Amino acid sequence: QLQLTDMAFKDPLTGLSNRRFLMDNAKREISRHARFDHPFSMMMLDIDHFKKINDNHGHETGDLVLKSFAEICVNTLRLEDCMCRLGGEEFIVLLPNTPVNSAMVIAERLRQEIEQSVISTPSGEITITSSFGVAEVNTNLPFGHSLKAVDHAVYQAKAAGRNCVIPAQ
Ligand code: C2E
Ligand code: C2E
Q1: Annotation marks residue 89 as catalytic
Q2: Which CATH superfamily is domain 2-167 in?
Q3: Is 54 in the pocket of ligand 1 (CB under 6 A)?
Q4: pLDDT tens-digit readout, 140-152
Q5: Atom of ligand 1 nearest to the CA of 102
Q6: Catalytic option among 60, 71, 89, 125
């Protein structure tokens, strides 16, 4: 039974929650935060130039980098922060009871942690950076609205030269 749930809601590579879990869970989280009027923030992370890693080192190394990336993030976040793999090299972290100014602090801590980590792979040591979009979740609107906002912020972070944190407008 547990394995079936795992398969449905977990990303098999990283062990993180998957997109399906995020979409199911976000609705419940929004409703909970709206009811208690608690601040609720989220961030999107996208590994910079990930395609180059796959192209230069192969998919096995790419997978290893994704796994290590997930591990670094999870160890740097609180247990109650929910990190999901949206797909590819794109991730979402839901930050319950967290105002957006704190979310910026967390994103910056993660950004530095990732930048400073050295990932050992069979094709050598690899360092990565990632781009961040941060937003307060608007609990009066569908989750898709906040998702679009962080996605746009990540786009701006990439345009600003990557390896940075941008708050959504
Ligand atoms: P800080 O590291 O500057 O964090 C400021 C605030 O950002 C925290 O206030 C919290 O609201 C939010 N925050 C920071 N990191 C996280 C995170 O990973 N997840 C979530 N959901 N929120 C986060 P808070 O809770 O009042 O903590 C105040 C200070 O206490 C923190 O300042 C930090 O210096 C220390 N602290 C609290 N918990 C921990 C912890 O588990 N580990 C460490 N190393 N320090 C902690
Ligand atoms: P946790 O809450 O699951 O947090 C796991 C790790 O996320 C922390 O490991 C720390 O690296 C990071 N982290 C979480 N919140 C913050 C924060 O507000 N600021 C900063 N700078 N880092 C944060 P760490 O520090 O080894 O703590 C391990 C566990 O010990 C935490 O797990 C938490 O359960 C507890 N803890 C540590 N410091 C505090 C604290 O100041 N207040 C509370 N309530 N618990 C703490």
Answers
A1: yes
A2: Reverse transcriptase/Diguanylate cyclase domain (3.30.70.270)
A3: no
A4: 999 999 999 999 9
A5: 7
A6: 89
